[in-house]
Specification:
GO terms for molecular function: metal ion binding; nicotinamidase activity. Keywords: Hydrolase, Metal-binding, Pyridine nucleotide biosynthesis. This is Nicotinamidase. This protein has 209 residues and is an alpha/beta fold. It has a single domain, classed as Rossmann fold (3-Layer(aba) Sandwich). The protein is 24% helix and 22% strand. It is built from 5 helices and 8 strands, in the order E-H-E-E-E-E-H-E-H-E-H-E-H. The strands form 2 sheets. It has a 6-stranded parallel sheet. A two-stranded antiparallel sheet has the order 3-4. Strand 1, helix 1 and strand 2 form a beta-alpha-beta unit. Helix 3 packs parallel to helix 4. It is globular and about 50 Å long. The structure holds zinc ion (ZN).
Amino acid sequence: MKCLLLVDIQNGFCSGGNLAVPNGEDVVPVANRLIAEGGYDLVVASQDWHPADHGSFASQHPGSHPFEMGTLGGKAQMLWPDHCVQGTRDADFHPGLDVAAIGYVQRKGENRAVDSYSAFRDNDQAALTGLSDYLLERRVDVLDVCGLATDYCVKASALDAKAMMPGVTVRFIADASRGIDPAGVEAAIAEMSAAGVRIVTSADVTGAN
Ligand SMILES: [Zn+2]
């Protein structure tokens, strides 16, 4: 079974959002084309879904500013602007995304005490979201991962998919993803590739080449 995982294609990570990724919304038409033409048996999506007082927010650390390193649960943590707060427009999927095609939504980041870049488990790797069991129960053997942001949640999701579901082919779709920092994107692609994640384009997936 071939599955597409759309990572955090939410207003908060697109232009005008609280944690906008440069040109984040450009992934929307590519994702829609993949949904229509990628031959997937299943489409799932992750959704960053924070309480208003989430510990990754700089606003919860007096004297700190967004994009500074801080600590959360005793571990180094990038401090973010408040983003994707549960029930707000910022947390909604981008309105252009074909949400009707999404068969399962995995919310993450609900525990204020730990951040969750990966769609599969919290950053401290203690709590699983349940997505790996969901996919394995459905006998997914090819998982394509794309979305926002390449250097954080997409990378973490692809690496965890590879680590937690050893028999599954995991592919990162580069042109259906955007990152925060160009150097970080380059490093993320190298790290994913070294871990056995295949780096592909949407044209490779749809056979448009
Ligand atoms: Zn978040």
